[in-house]
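Problem: given the chain below (275 residues), write out its structure.
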Amino acid sequence: MAMSYGAVMTRSVWSCNLEAEFELIRRAIKFFPFISMDTEFPGVIFQLDPAFRQPKNNYAMMKANVDRMHLIQVGLTLSDRHGNLPTFGTSNRFIWEFNFCEFDVTRHLHAPQSIALLQSQGMDFHKNRSFGANIMRFVELLMFSGLLCNNHIHWITFHGAYDFAYMIKVLSHRFLHMQPLLPPNLGDFLHLVKFFFGQEVYDVKYLIKFCPNLYGGLDRVSKSLGLDNSARKSHHAGSDSLVTLHVFKEIKRLYFHTDDDLKKYVGVVYGLEMF
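Solution.
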């Protein structure tokens, strides 16, 4: 169950192979502790007036959206500190794309333009509904894989607030017996991000604030850095997680020459900065 683009294979994960793929991940994480994550979800239905954008308001608006909607996909790219991906003894390199069954496009809230965009990129919502993994089982396996509550793991996102929010909603429901809702305030949310994802969290969208001439979304930043994304499948969580890793590696090489340079910006989620 893999789709090839270049030398990287996307391991497409459904209900039928969820356990087997986590077995591979458990084998890999000791050697590949840098985890780049991307998610696909049904868009944003509540918008915030730009005049009121500040962390607490941004969080309240995100909570209003995430509380009412379902995750569609999670992409994970595992790498070592040099950017190498797991090969499992083959000539290919592997990333993961998890597909979930909870979202029903015929009855659940969504932003129509976001759904149309995902469909134009090949998303099959009927297939996800029929064959996707159960997200509660996914977070159980994620919790016991060694990826969470582990300060040896480095988590990398691009504009990652919604990525973390959808994960926190399900993780806190399953393991902290909370309602399947985000916590009421931003401070509690950021505490849960640190609790589940550890100390080493990097949001590349925040990092580029300190990189001259870099701005915009993932595509623009990647292009500005001269990265080759000819094989990228835009708006596919697996592919986007790989591009996020490549951007992180390149800005680290160009702008943050030591780990200490980067440490100044650890643990900050773009748009939710609390200092």
